[in-house]
Sequence to fold (913 residues):
Amino acid sequence: MKMLIGFEVHQQIATERKMYCDSPTNYQDVPPNTNVCPICTGMPGSKPMPPNERAVNAAIEIALLFGCKVITGEPIYIQRKHYDYPDLPSGYQRTSLPIGINGELQGVRIREVHMEEDPGQYDPTLGTVDYNRSGVPLVEIVTEPDMHSPEEARRFLRQLVRVLEYSGKVRPEAGGAMRTDTNISLEGGGRVEVKNINSVKGAYRAIKFEIIRQKSKLERGESVTRETRAFLESQKITISMRVKELEEDYRYIPDPDIFPLIIDKARVEAIRASMVEPPYLREQRLVEQYGIDSTAASVIVSERELADLFEAVAKEIDPKLAATWFRTKLKKVLNYMKLRAADVKFTPEHIVGLLQMVDDCEITPEQGELVLRQLVKHPNDPRNILQELGLERIKPEELRAAINGVVSANPDAVRDYQAGREEALHFLAGKVMKLTHGRADARKIIELLRTKIMGEK
Amino acid sequence: MGEVTKAKLEAIRNLDLSAVENIQRALENLSKLNPRINAFIGPNPDAIAQAEAIDKKLNRGEHVGKLAGLAIGIKSNINVKGLRATCASKTLEDYVSTYDAEVIKRILNEDGIIIGMTNMDEFACGSSGETSAFGATDNPAASGYIPGGSSSGSAAATAASMCDLSLGSDTAGSIRNPASHCGIVGVKPTYGLVPRQGLIDLAMSFDQIGPFAPDVYGAALLLEVIAGFNPNECVMLNVKGVSYSEELGADLKGMRIGTSPKFRELTDPKIMGVIDSAVEKLQDLGAEIIEVKLPHLEKGLPAYYLIMSVEFFSATRKFDGRKYGKRIEDVCGDEVLRRILRGGYISRKEYRGKYYQRALQVRTIIREELIAALEKADVIVGPTVPKLPHKLGTSLTPMEMYAYDYLTAPTNLASICGGVIKAGKVDGIPVGLQVQGKMLGEGEMFRVLRAFEAVS
Fold:
């Protein structure tokens, strides 16, 4: 069955000050209603201050990252969108007309990028409102309904969040700073909008639920009405909010208290010149520039800081070796420790030093991983870590002694091997490794054992 | 004539009159007259203490501000920290301001003393002063008649010497109309000249705070204190350090003054009689009188009422009764409710093109017309209000009430400035001459007002 899925994604822009006043934006870190002023609480007579320039620049950069055409040289009105809700101190939300239009990401057309302001936080149980969040700048990205399955929608949304976070201009999705509405329609049914989704996972579940709900309705010969529904995260279902005929009229008017934004071309070009390379372009470049495979490149660009680290390392050492290590070992260690690349304290030189030792066969890859794990916890010269862990390369006589010891202590296994049972050699090798605490290379142990038991060839 | 404010400031500065004495005199007038006139609805209990502080500075020979020791009344839609900004409405009857409006900061910085909050039409919705939830205001210059509105209390208080100067706000004539009826000077500044931070909205794209004074000097002085760029709001003109009070000449030589036949069409002939002789005086002072065409002037009024209602609807959405005060629709008077309902109705999606957009087009036409006229003439003079004020308590239809604004609303539609000075009387009631100037043409406007004052 043919289906169309589109998104409206809202994410908080990471500025220190709110959109139309000087109050700080760290609303989660302070007691309720302390980061407020007459403007963001809409006290009688208060007027907005001029729009936060950094927030506007961030929105321009985000529009450019999605390949949008930024609207220049003409007024972009800030509109008042009226609705009645306790979290909205003035009874309207300020929302701009598009800053950028006609973009594209992963084959999905981006209709527009515009700016909004966050309302406060209402607690219906307590009947209280915290206005600390009120006035925090938001960017909203609206797509065309160009996705055709929940999986495709999830893939797209993940990539979109990645691009936003890459820009360094938004608050991370994980902190609840991302909210999305999604619209889903099946062939023969009305368009349904689902609100109140605040994660990629939630969006996927909401879409899945909707498709099943709509499909079964259509199969029963019922019609799917055009309506707005809310996603209930806890139950993973959607419930009806209002049908199209009862949709609110927001009575948009241009806010008479704010001059419209006029963005000039020079400003856009300055932002373009200094903006971050979006992950999808960076991935392509890494493949071409360093000759690494695209699977590794995709993992490496998943976090901007990881990619930065990779490029610093790849300048000093074989990029393919580095790519393998980044894709497998480093990503594994970071995931295990629940860390983001932005959180690590070690330097590119540390990684280069480590990989150099592996490349020179001074240490085994397994030892390398142990060093890496330590490096993430307590950044230090990898050689020092090696010493601390007691992993310096084993001396040949010590290894020989260990082999002699194992051979004489396990006559049965030696006999088995001599009788042609290859597994027996692996059993002996394991014993040697245990004895040497993994400091010797497994291949070397096998080779020495074979020589010892079967004699020189 | 017209030296009251200057003389008083000099007396205070020379220690012939203390600030405390001045405030006490105003308060005496207030307690004597206010029960009848009802101009003040919220006195400032700290006024005497503020005056004492200024006297200390004066006695020590320290520098004092331009308004040192003057008693200033404030319209109840302007926030003064610690005082009630009720907008003369039940909605905000218990709302105590948590911050000072920018204009209040500037007045305090120049050592002006806020003597209290004045009565007004509820949320500035009215042209008579009668829609106040705190009762109507009487006209000190013509007892038993309306003082005009919506800045009724500020005009009446200044006219009755309950304060030296006062602030009003003007959205379609709310300063100029009561200035005319009360026989004092009132000025609506160019839109964007005076900060609105802290002014409770009627219609954001028209509202301007402006001064009332017994004389032109006082109005010029108070305007230059409150005018000028404020970086903490958006819609302002980039104007700094304006000065009017020192540049009030008495000569009008070389000045081109425009009049329009349209004014006569719309105005009571008795009022036009007073205005005609005022224009003759201006000619005698050396001005060249020229005729300007304002063919669409009367269309400004309906356009204004539509745009204002939409903006007022938007502005009042915050009065939902949740954070402070009471839900506006539950407690407000008829005129406020009428405007909210009208604004909500015509801003509906399906009516946008029919009313609001068309009204905005008319606004553009009026603006272009007035600006073109002001390219030919330095100022345009004419009547302020087309008819005489009614007796308090007379029942008027909404349209009859709105008709008071025919000649003042276009100034706001065009964002230009306009000032009013008493030109004479009809049947014992003051009639004001309105002088409209270009955008930021306050200097020329004051020059005409002062020249006229000097010979009246």
User: Anything to note?
Assistant: DSSP finds 15 helices and 14 strands in chain A. The first strand of chain A starts at residue 3 and ends at 12. Residues 200-219 of chain A form the longest helix (20 residues). Residues 277-388 of chain A form one domain.
